[in-house]
Amino acid sequence: MQQYFIIDFDSTFTQVEALDELARISLKNHPDREAIYKKIEDLTNASMEGRLSFTESLQQRVKLLCANRDHLKQLITHLKKKVSVSFSRNTAFFKDHQEEVLIVSGGFKEFIIPVVTEYHIKRENIYANTFEFDEEGNIVGYDKTNPLSQEGGKVKLLREMNLQGDIYGIGDGYSDFQLKESGLIKKFFAFTENIERKSVAEKADHITPSFDEFLYINKLPRAISYPKNRIKCLVVGDIDDEALALVKKEGYNIRHRDSIEDKYLQEAGVLFCDEDNQPTPEQVQQAGKLKVIGCFGRVGSRKLAEAACANGIIIFDDPKDNPRNSDFIPRRVTAFMNEGRTHTSCNFPDLQPPRNNHAHRLIHIHRNVPGILAKINDVFARHNINIVGEFLVTNAQIGYVITDVDAGYDPQVLNELKAIEQTIKFRLLY
Questions:
Q1: Which residue ranges does the record assign to the ACT domain (predicted)?
Q2: Domain at 360-428: CATH architecture
Q3: How high is the pLDDT of residue 409?
Q4: SS3 string of 249-299?
Q5: Domain with residues 231-339, CATH architecture
Q6: Residue 427 confidence (pLDDT) above 80
Q7: CB atoms closer than 10 angstroms to residue 381
Q8: CA distance linking residue 154 with residue 181, whole number of Å
Q9: Prediction pTM value
Q10: Counting beta carbons within 10 angstroms of the beta carbon of residue 164, is it exposed (0 to 12), middle (13 to 18) or buried (19 or more)?
């Protein structure tokens, strides 16, 4: 059956509410700008949470803007830098599903079209309002005959379109939930990467903290194999706020504890700790899901570094109180999780493979015994899989292999790679 994906724009495709941002541009020299900003934001939230009709909210916000075409140009430049992170990394999905993806928004085509068409979304699949201008290019109103300018506009539009197939709605606001309430769509996904509106999220079929999560749940192609919001990140000790901001931006499920407790470490995929709160060798041996440790300080025990390595867990550390480590450690951890890079690790062999956007990347960590690479390549050969690039580095304990392969293989291949004798850890990176 045909599938359609109805995607909201403000606070979903982009990280921000465009009319709020337009006000900050157009009113920047206005003496009462802060009071007007606040009023516009309050009107936006009241509408998105279902406390005020969309029609009334839109009318009041447009009147307060005092904007023109030059302001819109500045807004477009700004919005292109504010596309939601999980949307921007899944450009390939939009390119491959151009017929099925529709942007449906109570925003305005004048700023939506220049942003989303860069992601292969068809102009004819963009449904939004349009401004009205005077002869000097000032915004004086909008087309009130457009159903999207009215209360329940998305519902009215979809009824007119009469799409045949399974329709999935993705958005952050009450108008998006109304599509589910109307019975016109199969499922509504509350998108919370940028903002979570509890009154909307509690009514959703599923809360999706990222677009990766939506693609994962629906078994659709995606830029990363496993959504970061599903990876638990344990934070223990005195970790700089700047470092935590970088980690949060990546989208991990962050959990703070005062000390390293076994039950929390065993659930974590990532551990950030300071020099005074490091796990024991015995703890890392039992941490089956743990992939990487970022230590803000030096790892004090050679046994810890060796135990982690033997269990396929990479460690990045840096001298305590080094001014660079609030940035250095999170970026090293991110480079490993996203690309498989091990450069500057204190316990893994060094590897810095270039990213290949046209292949799938597989990571295989195994005990350093002869013949493992041959067994890995035998799996690919038996399944007629083309290897685009392959990288192997070793130390006394482990072999670390990254293989980039063409897409389109049987998932059974992954099970066979995991089952190779002497395998410590295996994962599909992207």
A1: 361-430
A2: 2-Layer Sandwich (3.30)
A3: 84
A4: HHCCEEEEECCCCHHHHCCCCEEEEECCCCCCHHHHHCCCCCCEEEEEECC
A5: 3-Layer(aba) Sandwich (3.40)
A6: yes
A7: 11
A8: 11
A9: 0.81
A10: exposed
